[in-house]
Automatic annotation (TrEMBL):
Location of N6-(pyridoxal phosphate)lysine modifications: K54
Active site location: C352 (proton donor)
Keywords, comma-separated and alphabetical: Lyase, Pyridoxal phosphate
Family per record: Belongs to the Orn/Lys/Arg decarboxylase class-II family.
UniProt cross-references to InterPro entries, sorted A to Z: Ala_racemase/Decarboxylase_C, DAP_deCOOHase_LysA, De-COase2_C, De-COase2_N, De-COase2_pyr-phos_BS, Orn/DAP/Arg_de-COase, PLP-binding_barrel
Required co-factors: pyridoxal 5'-phosphate
GO molecular function annotation: diaminopimelate decarboxylase activity
Keyword field contains Amino-acid biosynthesis: no
Entry annotated with the keyword Lipid metabolism: no
Pfam families xref list: Orn_Arg_deC_N, Orn_DAP_Arg_deC
Top-level taxon of the source organism: Bacteria
Gene Ontology biological-process annotations: lysine biosynthetic process via diaminopimelate
Taxonomic source organism: Colwellia psychrerythraea (strain 34H / ATCC BAA-681)
Protein name: Orn/DAP/Arg decarboxylase, family 2
Length: 425
């Protein structure tokens, strides 16, 4: 019996999932620890790996990641709050939101949280704050868009010519302007790029990292000392969703980086990564019960309780985010071609729109009512995402009633600033 089958049998036998609780997410913490260890084993000691909290914003997952030696990369005030709740300290957090408010920036600089500047208007705010907090221990850098192009999934490509993220390095005289910015500000000690994600080739990612490494070397040379001491090479490692095989591996990535940017593998710079999906995806699964089955137009349809509400990316972009499913009997035994008839199947979710499908037109061993379906590789960006107001401290919720000329607006949930929330902890 493999580990996943053991997990589903245990969930069924201990009534973790049943007729009442019909969809669960499961994280394998032993697998998570091995993945983190694999990441550290692939790189030398000057690399420090942070976890992109957006990939799995669950405190009970972040806590062991912290214990396993990872830092936290956050991209919103809500993620920062969750990271602090999970026990990450200021020196091990980096804040990357492209929409930081003045209060966000003040909180980070006051508390010594590292951050990456997205644009020149944000730089103006930080200039003023550095006068207010001249002893700040925040490691501050610019997010640079090397404009090297996108990967196979346009919506997750962050280094295109028109990307919304970072400082466009190739436009006009921007490169020289950025060098001048660093020369005038000795507190700019880091430089950051996020050149890859799912659908991006490792060679493309390495190209972007090589560009900012060369830029850091040029800035340090012109300044006459090593002002930039940290290279933040954000960007996730792509994940293989088509099988259990882990490819590319962290070692594959390290080998390409060592060949293309060997300076990273010396002690000259601290190098920070921001892995997310590659850390958690294969260590999590969704298990859901099949409520009903039927045939329609020659297609076998299995309706489950896991769909667009927790498998959002696949439901809305199935070609970009296809995922594997495996059927199990009520006793947790895997349905295979040897034990069940293989039929063309749609595995559907519970939401009331036609595209709410986990997979479509797939040959699968025939599922029956009350069976279970395991949805593989869903430890990141699936059941772990919380796109709701509880993760956003600035959001307030109001009700409104009355005629247009006499409206009554009542607050039912008060928004809070990030600093207010952190000061309560």
């Amino acid at each position: 019996m493999n580990r996943k089958q053991n997990i589903i049998k245990t969930a069924i036998n201990e009534h973790v999932i049943d007729h009442n609780l019909t969809a669960i997410g499961v994280m394998d913490l032993d697998g998570l620890k091995k993945t983190v260890n694999d990441a550290y084993a692939a790189f030398p000691a000057n690399f420090f790996h942070t976890f992109a909290v957006k990939a799995n914003a669950l405190v009970k997952v972040l806590e062991p990641l912290r214990e396993y030696g990872m830092g936290a990369e956050v991209a919103s005030p809500g993620e920062l709050l969750i990271a602090v709740t999970a026990g990450f300290t200021a020196e091990n957090i980096i804040f990357d939101s492209p929409a930081k408010t003045l209060q966000d920036l003040r909180t980070c600089i006051k508390k010594g949280i590292a951050l990456n500047i997205d644009n020149l208007q944000e730089l103006e705010r930080i200039d003023a704050l550095m006068l207010e907090f001249p002893e700040s221990t925040s490691i501050i850098g610019f997010r640079v868009n090397p404009q090297i192009g996108g990967g196979k999934i346009g919506s997750t490509s962050t280094a295109t010519a028109t990307s919304k993220f970072g400082y466009a390095l190739v436009d006009g005289d921007n490169r020289n302007e950025l060098i001048s910015i660093y020369k005038k500000r000795p507190w700019l000690k880091s430089i950051h790029t996020h050149s890859g994600s799912q659908g991006c080739e490792l060679s493309l990612m390495a190209k972007g990292i090589k560009i900012i490494t060369e830029l850091a070397e040029e800035i340090n040379s012109l300044v006459g000392l090593q002002q930039i001491t940290r290279l933040d090479i954000g960007g996730g490692l792509p994940v293989n969703f088509s099988s259990e095989i882990i490819k590319p591996s962290f070692k594959d990535y390290a080998d390409i980086l060592k060949a293309e940017v060997p300076l990273l593998f010396t002690d000259k710079y601290q190098v920070k990564t921001e892995f997310g999906r590659a850390i958690v995806a294969k260590n999590g699964v969704i298990i859901t019960r099949v409520e009903y089955t039927k045939n329609s137009g020659g297609r076998h349809i299995a309706t489950t309780h896991a769909g667009a509400q927790i498998i959002t990316r696949t439901a809305f972009l199935p070609k970009s985010w296809p995922i594997r499913v495996t059927g199990y009997t009520t006793k947790g035994e895997e349905r295979t071609a040897q034990t069940s008839e293989v039929v063309t199947t749609d595995v559907a979710g519970p939401c009331c729109f036609a595209g709410d499908l986990i997979c479509s037109n797939q040959p699968l061993p025939k599922l029956e009512s009350n069976d279970y379906v395991m949805v593989h590789d869903t430890g990141g960006y699936y059941f772990t995402n919380h796109f709701d107001y509880n993760s956003l401290p600035r959001v307030a919720i109001y009700t409104v009633a009355g005629h247009d000329d006499d409206l009554t607006i009542e607050c039912i949930r008060q928004g809070e600033s990030l600093e207010d929330v952190l000061n309560k902890m």
